[in-house]
Amino acid sequence: MSLTRFEACLVGAVLGDCIGALYEGMSVVPLSTVLEYTSTLETNRKIQREHGTRPADFYGLRFTDDTAMTRSVAASLLEKKTFDAQDMARRFSQEYFEEPNRGYGGSVITVFESLKNPDLKDVYEPARTQFEGSGSYGNGGAMRIAPAPLFTFAKHKTEDLQDLVSSVTRLTHTNILGVHGAILQALAIDQSLRLSSASDLDVHAFIDSLVEKMRLIETRDKDTSPKPSPAKNPKRKLDAHPTPYTAKLEKMKEFFQKDSFETSEIVKEIGHDISALGSVPTAILAFLRAGTKIIPGLEDRNKFEQTVLYAISLGGDTDTIATMAAAIAGALYGMDLIPEPWQYYCEGVAEAETMAEGLFKLEA
């Protein structure tokens, strides 16, 4: 394993977050619009290189809570060299109160308020008691989980990764759908890291491996949620399936048997919202489609760029879907495919590289 793929996993996640945040909440995001903006990044960087100054009317892109919490996960793992619930919970809360304007959701803020209490003995309690005890089913666990598969990579044990992901996620999201979404995202990154090269990416093999793992996990845990989850969207039939993540992965295989499929189909069947169930499978689909099919309008873009641009074009929770898709893509493609202008204009890239290097050294 090379350092460049660890770096690209975390750097890619930052870029997906920063660029995707520009379109968050838009139900329809024309691909041409996203492409035009990233082309502006590249043009402005060229101007700066030629003239030594940044265009006066152009500013850098700030990261959101996705990256803020990812950094906290990485920092805790690097310092403690193990999972320390108290330390990670403290970092989450401290990060929020130092910079609260990063787009945090209202429900997680109440968790941070409780975690701020120095007398709190059980750091899992605030999240566990949310929503009348059902816990949050959002994608906040999955969006920040990229450091976990980097941390456990050398162990080659899926169980270790699952345990770490569950522990990290339950600090804020205890609903089983939120936990399973984070596990699925971490497994996808892990699988991507373990491919020898981009040419080894096979859609059906990649999905089948995830299906095998998630079916076991969902079957084992299907009765552990305290009450029926409100995450099940009545408009999406697969959300009501007994093993919904497995069902959505199987549905993705059907999509890839066709020459093309429309965004409307993806949104209808898989989703693009803030729930883990409605966004993690979507991010994986974006990675696989960009990695194995030519996306009209992006023919001159490399596979990493296509992943980010296509993920954003799916609309909805664009920053989180893009950050997750980009983390998976970066773990396969490495830094060579990540555009320098994107890195230059996005906040937090240098820190992501440093943290990735630290995690890589832990595994050496």
Automatic annotation (TrEMBL):
Its cofactor is Mg(2+). Signal peptide: none annotated. Binds 2 magnesium ions per subunit. Residues 218-242 are annotated as: Disordered. It is an enzyme of class 3 (hydrolase). Its EC number is 3.2.1.143. GO terms for molecular function: metal ion binding; poly(ADP-ribose) glycohydrolase activity. Keywords: Chromosome, Cytoplasm, DNA damage, DNA repair, Hydrolase, Magnesium, Metal-binding, Mitochondrion, Nucleus. Mg(2+) binds at T64, D65, D66, D317, D319, T320. GO terms for biological process: DNA repair; peptidyl-serine ADP-deribosylation. It catalyses: alpha-NAD(+) + H2O = ADP-D-ribose + nicotinamide + H(+). InterPro entries: ADP-ribosylglycohydrolase, Ribosyl_crysJ1, Ribosyl_crysJ1_sf. It is found in: Chromosome; Cytoplasm; Mitochondrion matrix; Nucleus. Its main location: nucleus. Monomer. Belongs to the ADP-ribosylglycohydrolase family. This is ADP-ribosylhydrolase ARH3.
